[in-house]
Amino acid sequence: LTACGGDSGGGNDDGKITMGFAQVGAESGWRTANTKSVQEAAKAAGIDLKFSDAQQKQENQIKAIRSYIAQKVDVIAFSPVIESGWDQVLKEAKDADIPVILTDRAVDSKDTSLYKSFIGSDFILEGKKAGEWLVDDSKTAKGPVNVIQLEGTTGSAPANDRTSGFADAIKADPKIKIVASQDGDFTRAKGKEVMEALLKAHPEANVLFAQNDDMGLGAMEAIEAAGKKPGVDMKIVTIDAVKDGMTALANGQFNYIVECSPLLGPQLMDLAKQVVDGKEIPKRVLTKETTFTQEQAKTALPSRKY
Ligand code: GYE
Questions:
Q1: Where does the Periplasmic binding protein domain start and stop, copy by copy (predicted)?
Q2: Do 53 and 70 touch, CB atoms closer than 8 A?
């Protein structure tokens, strides 16, 4: 407590908690749902939210975090676009006594005292689930299973971890080979563009693993343009389970989706309140998620919120 009594909030003393949130961008349906979840949860929790969109650029996120430090917010939350390069700005927050909660994506900082908690999914497990589905699905395949992989943003935690989880799982079947793997930046436009080129270079490909729904949806257009039927000539497995992805799955254009929940807002606000109250919070908070087949997507779709 300060002399003016309970100074919790961006230099004002109305007793409200102020959170600075540095978002990655608006690259995907997942991200849009995540932003909405954070904004709505802040409102419901009575937390004053300062929100910034970094347009997938680390330098913009660093600028936003520095400005939150300068504004003396009570807590900073952010979803680091890539894993590396955060030590300096996290140290600045720590020196200013502002707790940081990592949301959705991880940092590779060795000094884990630079943040209070990390809330989000297990991306290695997601990649593994996608790979396990393919191993299972390939049991009846007669010829080789040639996979094109569309990776998420290079250097991001979900791209690094989904790649390694998937690679690990498909080792179980030597028929399965990754014939090409390239960055599609988690966007529809890039997914389409990269897939066009990869399909030309690899006509033997018969499976697409897209590390999010949006890249899979963009790639679907390229697959159709190449005269192939998505979900049939080219099997498609993705991650996220946003509405457009689930629709493609229910329609038989995708074959399997591993869910990654963007609805992190309510838990994030809970953690923020506790940490501002000086309570100990868990260092890692994992999101609960599932997987969907085409049949399961048909059932789940009508009540899907995002
Ligand atoms: O899968 C993708 C988004 O970090 C888990 O980022 C998130 C990923 C998500 O752009 O759609």
A1: 25-280
A2: no
